[in-house]
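Lab notebook, bench 4. Still working through the backlog of constructs that have no structural model yet. Next entry is a single chain of 310 residues. Request: give me the structure tokens for it.
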Amino acid sequence: MSADLIRIVSRDSPMALAQVERVRVELAALHPDTRTEVVPVRTTGDKWMGDLSEVEGKGAFTKEVDAALLAGEADLAVHCVKDIPADRPLPAGTVFAAFLRRDDIRDALIHPGGLRLDELPAGTRIGTSSVRRSAQLAASHPHLLCVPMRGNANRRLEKLAAGEADALLLAASGLERIGQRDVITEILSPEVMCPPIGAGVLALQCREGDTELIDAVSLLGDPAAHRETTAERMFLHVLQGHCNSPIAGFARVERNGDLSLRAKVFTPDGKTVLNAHEWAGALDPATLGTSVAVSLLRQGARELIDGIAH
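Model written out:
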């Protein structure tokens, strides 16, 4: 590869920079002669601590990163797939070059007293601003109380220590990336807490015309992560969910190559839960995503999503 410098743009949070480090290490192993440089940017989502729907929802974490890429200030963007809006296409002129091997998709409970989720007493305050988590807790553990909490994982752990909540729910993969796996009290199975679309997957995004760079970084891609992410994002795209709609789901490639997608749509109070689970075998992931979305639309998902203020 002739390009001897790749400028990598990312959010400037400790977790985002840890993710960039992973990409740099994997790139160095593939292309030892290539130098990499990090271009950190502060995103609207990192600056704004209120409700995300007031700042264009999830695009809040990607807009400034996309802008740096399109302006030519950087060559490669690293995103968490769960932060990239799926209800609209990628910014014109950009493409996904690779989805990295998937990390843990599960949620983790952090309780300073070491209690598990089923052991928490009534009225325990759980710090989370995720509508997906709070809807599922309302359905399964209605005696617990969700208190809004934003900020990166380190910041939330500080808020927990300061007594702003009694326990936290955070992504297991995120805690692992910032070296905080030891704070986890319990890892929740996807059956107990269904993950967000795109959980645990890092996406590498390039400008469309940079074919040499696309070829170089595409080798970092993981075929299973690509199939799973394609199914999940097509599901979300067909459903046209917004950032206040509690939607959860995950695709899985089995050892024999068969692909399945399990997905749920909730009302924020957890009183209504729509479920779908379908298999595509070895067939096209996008078709599977579409089919699961249609299955939920048949159950009334459109009315449910449109009925939620955003």
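Notes after review: Residues 14-30 form the longest helix (17 residues). The chain has a mean pLDDT of 91. Flag for follow-up if needed.
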